[in-house]
Amino acid sequence: MGYGIISASFLLVSAVALTVQVFLYSPISPDILELPSAVSSPPLYTPNNYLQAAIKLGEGILNKPEDVCVDEKGILYTATRDGWIKRLLTNGTWENWKKIHDRHTLLGLTVTRAGDVIVCDTEEGLIKVSEDGEVTALATHMNGANIRFADDVVEAADGSLYFSVASTKFGLHDWPLDLLEAKPHGQLLKYDPSTKETSLVLDGLGFANGVTISSDQEFLVVCETWKSRCLKYWLKEEMRGKVDIFIDNLPGMPDNIKLAPDGSFWIAILQVYE
Ligand SMILES: *[C@@H]1O[C@H](CO)[C@@H](O)[C@H](O)[C@H]1NC(C)=O
């Protein structure tokens, strides 16, 4: 009985101490995460099973591939959690094409008009791999600070590379903290190959994720995962720099975005709200 009381008060003291500790040492200072109104209203989109019919490429071969791109010859590239760029040849064989780094996760990638593959390295920034396999670091710093957590990249018609940084506060492995904090630490950056300079395009994005450019090159779309929306950043002369909402109230959190051959967009939803 006596022991019971002692251990109960010990537990209470420990609980208080733990609570104080959590408050003192918490790595986050959270805001409220606002989910879209669509969550509480009847769904806009009718559920279907179309994805059940998808063909799985590279199952058992790829370690958490994030993104895909296809070059002029029809070779499909993807980059993995364990630092590889792997490619699917047109005869159906997967090739371990290029290892960028043992311990760096690679995310979004794109093939440029010149035939280079540009990949987002979550520790280093933007990396270029030429057709013959030569690796060059392109954008590693902005205003003297290391670029971390580069997420997705797209090439504009003028050769500029636009890319997202998911969070400037938390790294890849701490992404759940970025969600818990629910503050917009994401950015859209631009790398200009003629000056080799990297500049800030948009700041304060809610986990900047997929980026793509419309087929007419009039605007860029960047997805804000935590905000369940994608923004339109105007590129065409008379609208340049203006930002509009491209789509909001998505039925879940958007991840990558791809341009379809007919000019429409595919958006991958990583978590569908129920
Ligand atoms: C596909 O092409 C590659 C490269 O030429 C070759 O190494 C591989 O054996 C081929 N695979 C098949 C199934 O033909």
From N to C, what is the helix and strand string? HEEEEEEEEEEEEHEEEEEEEE
Structural class, from helix and strand content? mainly beta
Low-confidence stretches: 1-14
What is the CATH topology descriptor? Neuraminidase
Q: Which strand order spans the largest sheet, edge to edge or round the barrel?
A: 1-2-3-4
Which homologous superfamily in CATH is the superfamily? TolB, C-terminal domain
Ligand catalogue: 2-acetamido-2-deoxy-beta-D-glucopyranose
* Overall number of domains: 1
Please bin the fraction of helical residues. 10-25%
The main sheet comes to: 4 strands, antiparallel
Shape: globular
Span between termini:
48 Å
Radius of gyration: 22 Å
What is the CATH-assigned architecture? 6 Propeller
The CATH C-level class name: Mainly Beta
Strand % is 35-45%
Can you count the helices? 2
Give the integer mean of the pLDDT values. Answer: 89
Q: Could you tell me the number of beta strands?
A: 20
GO molecular function, one term: hydrolase activity
InterPro entries: 6-blade_b-propeller_TolB-like (IPR011042), Strictosidine_synth_cons-reg (IPR018119)
Pfam families: SSL_N (PF20067), Str_synth (PF03088)
Protein name: Strictosidine synthase
